[in-house]
Design brief:
Radius of gyration: 24 Å
Distance between the termini: 39 Å
Strand order of the largest sheet: 7-8-9-4-10-11
Keywords: ATP-binding, Nucleotide-binding, Transport
Protein name: ABC-2 type transport system ATP-binding protein
Bound molecules: adenosine-5'-triphosphate
Family: Belongs to the ABC transporter superfamily.
CATH architecture of the largest domain: 3-Layer(aba) Sandwich
Order of helices and strands: EEEEHEEHEHHHEHEHEEHEHEEHEH
Largest sheet: 6 strands, mixed
Structural class: alpha/beta
GO molecular function: ATP binding; ATP hydrolysis activity
Shape: elongated
CATH superfamily of the largest domain: P-loop containing nucleotide triphosphate hydrolases
Number of strands: 15
Pfam families: ABC_tran, DrrA1-3_C
Number of helices: 11
């Protein structure tokens, strides 16, 4: 049994190679118990392969995994009953109701008790907010409802950990919100959630922790506030004297400056904005516009991954 202090998931040097290519390259994941851990990275960065190894669906080339206190894959049969997973989505029958679909999946699970099935199915449907639609056919469900039914399938027995691979992928904004609310409420119940996404904006609001993948490597990991504070404040100003402005800003500590036309950008300064404006004016630089942009997670990730994360949705 994992103690409350033990991480829900920990990997050491986890590696997977396909044809000599390191698709997952020595990653040390640390998913605290009780966290909502956003596993973020562009398509192809190795998230799904990592998740498949965690769930015992793929064998690591090297490295170790401990999940809920048990070694994976060696003790995967012990740990899997405590883990709900949504990977690639279960195959639902379009003509059957949500409830009938869950009954089919539950019946196919040799470890679940058929006597308690109706109650467990009702609880899972309730949990994801689909009780009212339980008798509707799957094919008339909205995208968000379909995805929530997929999560319900992972909740047919009580779980300590939920692993969701891109649960918001392809959803419209409404569906994305539904899934986010569901993750929030599952976390409030004490379930640890690992949720992958290639879109920061889709999961940022629900996560307590983030891990960022780039080309098979885990390039950042930690509590979301800690990662956010790694960002740099950016000053932006408009002036008729950009060259002079840059000289002043550099003297005041800016280590990154650029200008285009009358717009000057500067990073790496920690002076109060009013002190910067005063120094500019004292140096004869006319300031037409001045803004300070607080660091965003988006900026941090662009720096880490070398590419922008989609901010839609
Ligand atoms: N069975 C396999 N054989 C060979 N290459 C594979 C296999 N599975 C995955 N890959 C490759 O490994 C890389 C990482 O894939 P993976 O699916 O883990 O990334 P991902 O971050 O989950 O991206 P996506 O969001 O697109 O699924 C990709 O280049 C993919 O083509």
């Amino acid at each position: 049994m994992a103690t409350p202090e033990a991480p829900a998931i920990r990997t050491t040097g986890l590696t997977k190679t396909f044809g000599g290519r390191r698709v997952v390259d020595g990653i040390d994941l640390d998913v605290p118990t009780g966290s909502v851990y956003g596993f973020l990275g562009p398509n192809g960065s190795g998230k799904t392969t990592t998740i498949r190894m965690l769930l015992g669906l793929a064998r690591p080339t090297a490295g170790e995994i401990t999940m809920l206190g048990s070694a994976v894959p060696a003790q995967v049969t012990r740990v899997l009953p405590r883990v709900g997973a949504l990977v690639e989505g279960p195959a639902f029958h379009p003509q059957l109701s949500g409830r009938a679909n869950l009954a089919r999946l539950d019946a196919a699970d040799a470890t679940s008790d058929p006597r308690t099935a109706p109650e467990r199915i009702a609880t899972a449907l309730e949990r994801v907010g689909l009780q009212h639609a339980r008798d509707k056919r799957f094919r008339v469900y909205s995208l968000g409802m379909k995805q929530r039914l997929g999560i319900a399938a992972g909740l047919l027995v009580p779980r300590d950990l939920l692993v969701l691979d891109e649960p918001t992928n392809g959803l419209d904004p409404q569906g994305t919100r539904e899934v986010r609310h569901l993750i929030d409420s599952l976390a409030a119940d004490g379930i640890t959630v690992l949720v992958s996404s290639h879109l920061l904006s889709e999961i940022e609001q629900v996560c307590t922790h983030l891990g960022v993948m780039r080309e098979g490597r885990l390039v950042a990991q930690g509590p979301i506030d800690q990662l956010r504070s790694q960002g740099r404040t950016l000053l932006r100003l408009r002036t008729g004297e950009p060259a002079e402005a840059i000289t002043v800003l550099r003297r005041m500590g800016a280590d990154e400056t650029s200008h285009q036309g009358d717009t000057v950008l500067a990073g790496g300064m920690d002076q109060a904005p009013e002190a910067v404006v005063a120094a500019l004016v004292a140096a004869g630089v006319g300031v037409r516009e001045f803004t300070v942009r607080a660091p965003s997670l988006e900026d941090v990730f662009i720096g880490l991954t070398g590419e922008g994360f989609d901010v839609s949705g």
